[in-house]
Amino acid sequence: MGHSKTGVAMRYYSENWYEATEKFIRSAIDFGNLKWCVSPNSYYDIPYVKIGDGANQLVINSGIHGIEGYFGSAAQLMFLNEIAPKISDTFLQDYTITIIHVINGWGMQNRMRETRDKDGGLVDLNRNFGIDFSKPENLPTNPLYHLSHDLLLSAPDPIRKKNAIKAFRSSHLHDGAWSAISWGQYDYPHGLFYGGASQTDENKMTMAIYDEIMHGANKKSLVSVGLHTGLGRFNRRDKYVTGQLLVSHPSWHQNTQFFKSVCNDTEIVPDESAVFGPTLLGDLVDCLESRYGRTDCPVYTADFEIGTGEFPIMSPVFKRMDMGDARYDLLHFGKINPTTRANLTESWYPSDNGWRDAALNRARVLFSELISNLHVRD
Ligand SMILES: [Zn+2]
User: Per-residue pLDDT tens for 28-83?
Assistant: First the structure.
């Protein structure tokens, strides 16, 4: 029985963007409200489907980071096939559910976290939202990132470079320079977690979809959850993964309290350092809050993270080294070494079927909590 269940779960996963998109539209079209956001400059249009007709908005998006593979897509397919058909009509009078499928199609197809900008830089979409790109002096700064940039982009070396990054982590774990690597930066187009020099097409398309969702005066609330992988634990032997809801606010914040009241079996991860403002520069969840939040229309946002780190200490070291190696390869040889590519893929999107099955089960728990407890609130 375990085997047949795994077989069903595996059906939701895809090998490439085309397969994932075709599966999504085949399942979404049953609900009748399939739409597309079409970009004039992109081959990767974004399909989305709306279910229900309520004034409260529940949005589940996937695929901001292409390297995270087809977990988000699979979880959305599972939602459409297993959860959506069982949702009551009363819920759908209170809520409109929108499923946005794969925001970063290019990254997904090319196994990159980022998307490309005009100059060949690699833009992390989740550092590109809500940023004022009109003047360079308006861009956010991240001075601590400079400390690690040269090391991260140095020539690949599985032993020397790994040990150097490990040592950098040890000496900068408490002064902010280690965590600053992932906060986002706007100075090095080939650096890690680069936020871009302009609003990307994918950013514009995403905001166009959210604007359409939030258009009109009768909107009561927005609950938006993005599906991600890469943060948290994966125990290969026990086929155990963590599922963490990153609420990007301190414990006392209403956003954190909201998700705590809705989710009983999903771990809520507050960000205690985000007291005066967001820790991550240019991420979608903060952008949604400032764009749509009003006293008569609260906005609750979070990112759901499925764990992939098999060695909790070394996993972030390897991930950053692989990202730096990939950039070194691109800058010097125009393409990424297959070993680096395989390492990158495996550390964000494990090929292990036990991981894929457990990841979907985590998503199932979260979706069930959202549907049953959001309803209870009203
Ligand atoms: Zn991500």
Answer: 998 878 999 998 776 899 999 999 999 999 999 999 999 999 999 999 999 999 99
The span from the CA of 210 to the CA of 214, in Å, is 6
Regarding pTM above 0.90, the answer is: yes
Tell me how many domains the chain contains: 1
Q: pLDDT tens, 269-308?
A: 999 988 778 888 999 999 999 999 999 999 999 999 999 9
Q: How far is the CA of 215 from the centre of ligand 1 (A)?
A: 27
Of 323, 346, 274, nearest to 153 by C-alpha is 323
1 alpha carbon – ligand 1 mean position (Å): 32
**Cα–ligand 1 centroid distance for 161 (angstroms):** 24
Q: Enumerate the β-bridge partners of residue 243.
A: 306
User: From ligand 1's centre to the CA of 157, what distance in Å?
Assistant: 26
Distance 65 CA to ligand 1 centre (A): 5
**Is 322 inside any structural domain?**
no
What distance, in Å, lies between the first and last C-alpha atoms of the chain? 38
Query: Which CATH number fits the domain that encloses residue 266?
Result: 3.40.630.10
Q: Which residue has the tokens 């939602």?
A: 79
From the CA of 240, how far away is ligand 1's center (Å)?
Answer: 19
